[in-house]
Every structure is written in C-alpha cells, then in structure tokens.
Amino acid sequence: MSLTTQSAADLAAMLARREVSAEEVTKAHLERIAAVDGHVHAFLYVDADRALSLARSVDARRSAGERLGPLAGVPIGVKDVYTYAGAPTTCGSRILEGWIPPYTSTLVQRVLDAGMIPLGKTNMDEFAMGSSTENSAYGPSHNPWDLDRVPGGSGGGSAAALVAYEAPLTLGSDTGGSIRQPASVTGTVGIKPTYGGTSRYGLVAMASSLDTPGPCARTVVDAALLHEVIAGHDPRDSTSIDAPVPDVVGAARSGDVRGMRIGVVRELGGEGYAPGVEQRFNEAVALLQDAGAEVVEVSCPHFDYALAAYYLIMPSEVSSNLARFDAMRYGLRVGDDGTRSAEEVMALTRGRGFGDEVKRRVIIGTYALSSGYYDAYYGSAQKVRTLITRDFEAAFQVADVLVSPSTPTTAFRLGERVDDPLAMYKADLCTIPSNLAGNAAGSFPVGLAPEDGLPVGFQVMAPPLADDRVYRVGAALERLLPNQLDALGALPGSLAVKEAVR
C-alpha cells in the first residue's frame, strides 16, 4: 500500500517505529500532489522546500532520542484562511493576492509544535463564502469522486486533498458548515468543535461569532488526533474557552453507543432531501439502535428559521470584518496613480478585488446594520438565534446527541447552482443551526447514495464541550458500516484520479 493511502494514525505508528522517515512520507505526498492536483486543484500553494526541511528536522530530533508528539512527521494541508508566516494567504481572494503574513496562526503553530508538516495552502471559496469552492478567485476545486462535481465549500480544497490522497489530514474552518458539508459530499470526516474550543487567532475572520476552526480527516481516529493537537485555550483569542479539552481520542477509539440517547431531528429531513441521502441516513440510525443506542425523535421548531437568521447575522459580521480590506494597509491596490483620492482607490480596489458573492454579502450586511433597519433585521435574527439555542437545550434534555443528514443532497455538478444563490445556500440547511448555537457537530460518511453512487454524510450534534460524544457516535458508524466505507475507500469516481492512485 502506498504511503499516501495510509491513515494518519498508521503513518504516525510507522514513523514512531522508524519504519519510514518523515522525509519519505513528505516526499510521497508532494509527489502525489504533483501527479493529481492538476485534475483536483485542491492546493493554491505548495510549500515543498519548507515541508521537506521540517521533515528532516523531525527525523533528526527522533534520531537524537527526543520524545515527539503522536503526529510528529505526519503531513497536513492548511486551508488558505490561516496565516502561516512566509507563505501566501489569499483566502481565495484577489484582494489578498501576494500578501505574505508576518505571523502564524495559533492552529498552524500548534501543528508545527506537534512536529507535523504543513504541505501548503488549500483552496476555498473566497473568504469562506460559499458551498462549492466555485467562489474561489483562483478557480474551483473538483470532487475526486467525479471531477465534474463540487467538493463542497467553503473548504472544498481541504476535503478534496484528503479524498485524492494528497494529504492525510487538513485544517478547515466552519462558519455555517464549511467543514461538514465538504466532508459529506466527499465521503470524509469533518468536525466543527465547540465554538471557543479551538483558537481563531490568525484565522482571517469572516463572521467572528460563528467561525470555528476544526479538523478534517479520512477516519474518525485521525480527526480526533488532530483535534487534540489544535484544541485548547489561547489567551490571544478573547472567545477561547479556558476549559479542559474533552477526551476525543478515547471516544474515537471506543465507539460504544450502548445506552446513548440519539435524537433524530424532525425538521432536518423530508421535502428537498434526496431519497438516497435519507435512505443511508435511516439505515445508519437503525444500525446505531441495533448497537444499543436508544433512538428518539425530537423537534427543534425554530430550525426552520435558521437559514434566514444566519443570512442576516453572517453578512452583518462580514460587512464589519471585511471593511479592513481598504487598499491602504496590505493586499491589492488599484488606481493609485497619484490623481485619485483614497476613497476612489478604495472603491476601485474593492470593486476589482472582491468577487460577486463577497459583494452580495457585504451589501446585505451593510443594509441589515443600517440606521432604521438594525432592529428589524439584525436584531430580529439574533432573537431567532436565541430561540434556536433554546431548541438545542431542550432537545439535549431528552437526547445525548442529535443526528441528521449532513446536507440534503450528494455533490451537485459544477456550475449547477452558481446562478442561484438560494439553491447554493440550502446546501447548509442542516449545518447552520450548530454554528448559531455554538455546539459541537461533525459529519461522518455512511456510504454511497444508490441513485448516483456518491458519498452521503451523517451529522452528529452534541452539547457545548461534549465534543467527545460526536466522536463516539462517529466511531460507532465507522465500525458498523465496513462495507459502505470500503466502497468509499475504493474511490470509484474520477478516472483521472483513480489511475493516479494506481
């Protein structure tokens, strides 16, 4: 078996036993990227020289007898929303083209401190605004299952890199489903930790009350191992929670759901959900029940208003956060020929530097925050957010976790929804409530939809700081669905990627 098809846990074990060097593992993944990324476009920037230098350093430290972290020497892809000193950070936008940050985000620093090897920056929808990666200013990523389909968004590059075996682990960020929706449509594992459980320092902000960094992986244990590395209090993030990190690795290795109460959310299903998605979801629920879980139906009536509330709160925060990209301090500057005012240069720069979706959300947010409309729009949306949080609190009184499909459909075709923003937004129907409430959630693969042979995701939601419950159910699904997950591992999708795997 190729080094690139090994799980992160298996690679870590091989490295610890000195059966392979970090340099060899890193070279294998860099060669894999060179071989297939022309088809997939998962990466915006590959940091080959620095990655190999870091790998050699890990090998030297291991040879010297230094005690290293459990993932030391394992490569990782980094979503291009995280700063990494010396590497370009574009957030998929022209307005940051050429910007080299002078500082490193907390998550990337923790990855480096753990001895992991950043391979480069993965593609994303511009400033994390999108559900398909088609909003990237540098072109879309492609789903390795079918290169004509999307890998989800906004972190489609991170998910595509995993499923194309370009990286065993990647970093993502989840504002309304940007980790979980790509995981769902690519057959991978994506976790949104409790808000505040992972640091946002150095994560270029989209919507500060919603943005949540998290791990992306091909297996549940791999995701948990990365979660353990990146989580924990950070004094540089004012929203960071100063509390112990739940035992996510132990939960991922257990997968025991006996006695757990699993609540199926009534509002997250039915009309608009693909038959194959609902079929695989219902089959997985039945397997969890057979494994000893108690399954109950719960109602969260205000979830029906989550999409509308989100698309007022999020654009309002976008309008505020993106005001910093003004052509005066860093990034793109257009029309600065000495004849124009600062306001004219700013308008020209933002007009050319931002894409259509970013402009749409800035305009919506600015309107929602404007005098005379604030209470009617932004204020009302925040009240709905409170009601959604209360729905979760009531549901968690009768269930340990809540479950639903991760997204209503399998991967749609590139170009299918680009002219219909509402259809694109509906990809996040199931994931948005957890961002509004701040609780933990994750997406796990549960097989292929019968009608199109594409992956289906199963969402697990848990109370704040009960992230371990998400992993416990995900591990149970992984154990209970060996045949379906073997099919996922076979990648019977794109011929180009299949041949490159061989």
Give your account of this protein's structure.
The protein is an alpha/beta fold and 502 residues long. The chain is built from 18 helices and 11 strands. The protein has an 11-stranded mixed sheet, with helices on both faces. Residues 491-502 have low confidence and may be disordered.
Features:
alpha/beta; 41% helix; 502 residues; 18 helices; 11-stranded mixed β-sheet; 13% strand; globular
Distance between the termini: 10 Å
| Secondary structural class | alpha/beta
The biggest beta sheet reads: 11 strands, mixed
The total count of helices amounts to: 18
**Element order: H for helix, E for strand:** HHEHEHEHEHEEHHEHEHHHHEHHEEHHH
- Gross morphology is globular
Q: Give the fraction of residues assigned to helices.
A: 40-55%
Radius of gyration: 21 Å
Mean pLDDT: 95
Strand neighbour order, sheet with most strands: 1-3-2-4-6-5-10-11-9-7-8
Quick one: how many beta strands? 11
Low-confidence blocks of residues: 491-502
The proportion of strand residues reads 5-15%
What does the secondary structure layout of this molecule look like, with pairings?
Layout: H1 8-16, H2 22-40, E1 43-46, H3 48-63, E2 75-79, H4 106-113, E3 117-122, H5 156-163, E4 169-174, H6 180-186, E5 189-192, E6 212-217, H7 220-230, H8 248-254, E7 261-265, H9 275-290, E8 294-298, H10 306-321, H11 342-353, H12 356-368, H13 375-398, E9 401-405, H14 421-425, H15 432-437, E10 440-448, E11 455-462, H16 467-480, H17 482-490, H18 495-501
Parallel strand pairs: 2-3, 2-4, 7-8, 7-9
Antiparallel strand pairs: 1-3, 4-6, 5-6, 5-10, 9-11, 10-11
Helix pairs in contact: 2-3, 7-8, 8-16, 10-12, 10-13
